[in-house]
Amino acid sequence: MSADADRPTTTYVAAKPPLPETPEQLRARIPGWGADLDPRDRPANPQERFDPGATGAHWDFPERQVERYPRERSIEHGTLPPVFGTSAPLHGLSGAVRRLAYARYSEGRAAHWLLLIAGDRIDAVESHLRSFATLHPDNPITETGVLSEVRRHGVASRFGRGRADVNHQWIDPVLVAGPWVAAGTAAGTAAFLGVRSLVRRVRS
Amino acid sequence: MRAMVYRGPYKVRVEEKDVPEVEHPNDAVVRVTRAAICGSDLHLYHGLLPDTRVGMTFGHEFIGVVEEVGSSVQRLKRGDRVMVPFNIYCGSCFYCARGLYSNCHNVNPNATALGAIYGYSHTAGGYDGGQAEFVRVPFADVGPALIPDWLDDEDALLMTDALSTGYFGAQLGDIVEGDVVVVFGAGPVGLYAARSAWLMGAGRVIVVDHLDYRLEKARTFAHAETVNFTEHDDVVVHLKRITGHLGADVAIDAVGAEADGSFLQHVTSAKLKLQGGSPVALNWAIDSVRKGATISVMGAYGPIFSAVKFGDAVNKGLTLNMNQAPVKRQWPRLLEHIRNGHLKPNDIVTHRVPLEHIAEAYHMFSAKLDDCIKPIIVMEEPA
Predict the structure, then answer these.
(1) Which helix (H) or strand (E) holds B7?
(2) What does each of the 383 residues of chain B score in pLDDT, given as a tens digit?
């Protein structure tokens, strides 16, 4: 075998592998091909560009929103930012856990995030329990949207199509049922303890 | 008002909530006419993002009509038809002054690493979102913009995140003429990123996914070559092989936290929440590109650590560009592209559902039923 026959055509030599289409062919096939070829036509180029007049702000520092309740904040902030969301104020045990995460740990600490995730799970259980005392209790059928399995071709969408996610979708019902089982166990235990206490009082 | 409300992982419902009020002089209250469910809403829906509270209304992609404005609002008035970027930002802080609108420091008490996003947990500021009849829009003089009369409602809606983010992702790739670009993920953002890569002069665009119907859309909408990773024992080797064993010049991660392709990575992140995200797509990007390549990351990841292969990234001399998109910076150029016929954003919309059916829409989108790519929530017109 000659040296030329063994010479690789790509990667191990200077030239790039050839492209399947020329710029002219691409321009003819794809609407707008190359319209933003010049980086100056790309609006986020460069990402960081000092232009304080471009935003529409007519203040140096925004007026402060009224803080109607003590607003939790990251300890990495030097002050409470002037504007903030008021979607779901902290409450209950989940609120205490989340408050601890904000008060004690920076965003750089895993404890901060793990406590917040724990707060999320507690919040779900608390909320399910609380809903049972309302006229609008949680409904796992309607809230999971599981009826769309029938209306939106659940079986045909999943099987025989080589999808990579089918191998772990069986875990989802376990995750959905988890807070319900926890809430049910908590409610059952509370009821049992209450009844037992009542029985003991009656007997004594 | 009627609003979507989160009830815990995999559970949402529609319930009555108070109409939001003006809480700051530069607030507006907007009556929502169209909203979308974003792939990143699914991270919240699955309980992956820390401090996602029961009772929050999701939705960071929406358009609507101004209902009320605060006392300092100068640029909007009641009745204006507006599109609202998913970023909430003040326009005046250190970051906003430098165009980094997604990194605003004046709007999110809960985290300094993240700006604020409508309806995206308290980690993103604790603002209710637009999957509701009304929504509070802070800094009305900064974020929202009037929708041009000629622009279709759905196209305007898609500019509030998915299209702007996809286009931004292609920009982060620093594409030069003739570059081979691999896009991981054929969801809405990946499709738009692939389409945008051509605008920037790519010589080849290859889209990787495992859902056959989305790969079909990548071929027809984004004019791309496609790779179904389930058909290859090792997708990294396959990508090397089809690029002359060199690897791509640019890779774009448009998948984010719940990437499939590795059972262990997916379960430890998306299911068990032990990682900030499943870095399967990012690791494939790192390993499949050529040395010296650029990787663009605008798929959403959570704040906890993820098992990313940084050693390979260092040894290959890669450049990693990343951020959440500063949406409004993209709009003037995107409007030109839409008007010139270079882009037709709503070609990817597959489902239009009323707000009352949003729980089924979330399940359908999450479980990828009915060939769903992009579901839109259509609000009822007021009587």
Answers:
(1) strand B2-8
(2) 999 999 999 999 999 999 999 999 999 999 999 999 999 999 999 999 999 999 999 999 999 999 999 999 999 999 999 999 999 999 999 999 999 999 999 999 999 999 999 999 999 999 999 999 999 999 999 999 999 999 999 999 999 999 999 999 999 999 999 999 999 999 999 999 999 999 999 999 999 999 999 999 999 999 999 999 999 999 999 999 999 999 999 999 999 888 887 888 888 877 777 788 888 999 999 999 999 999 999 878 888 888 999 999 999 999 999 999 999 999 999 999 999 999 999 999 999 999 999 999 999 999 999 999 999 999 988 77
Q: Do B244 and A36 touch (CB under 8 A)?
A: no
Q: Which residues of A touch B305 (CB under 8 A)?
A: 110
**Cα(B375)–Cα(B254) distance, integer angstroms:** 18
Q: What is the pTM of this model?
A: 0.94
* Interface contact B55, partner A, CB < 8 A: yes
Q: Under an 8 A CB cutoff, do A144 and B108 touch?
A: no
Within 13 Å, how many C-alpha atoms sit on residue A11's CB side?
A: 13
| CA R_g for chain A | 30
Contact criterion met (CB < 8 Å) for B96 and A55: yes
Q: Are B181 and B173 in contact (CB under 8 A)?
A: yes
Helix or strand holding residue A176 (H, E)? helix A171-203
- Whether residue A99 contacts residue A69, with contact meaning beta carbons closer than 8 Å, is answered with no
Indicate yes or no: CB of A83 within 8 angstroms of CB of B106.
Answer: yes
Q: Are the C-beta atoms of residues B105 and B93 closer than 8 Å to each other?
A: yes
Distance CA A33, CA A23 (A): 8
**ipTM, interface predicted TM-score of the complex:** 0.94
B222 CB within 8 Å of a chain A CB: no
Residue whose tokens read 């650029």: B294
Pairing of β B319-322 and β B289-297: parallel
B96 CB near a chain A CB, below 8 Å? yes
Task: Judge whether B261 and B280 are in contact, CB under 8 Å.
Answer: yes
Number of C-alpha atoms within 13 angstroms, CB side, residue A127? 26
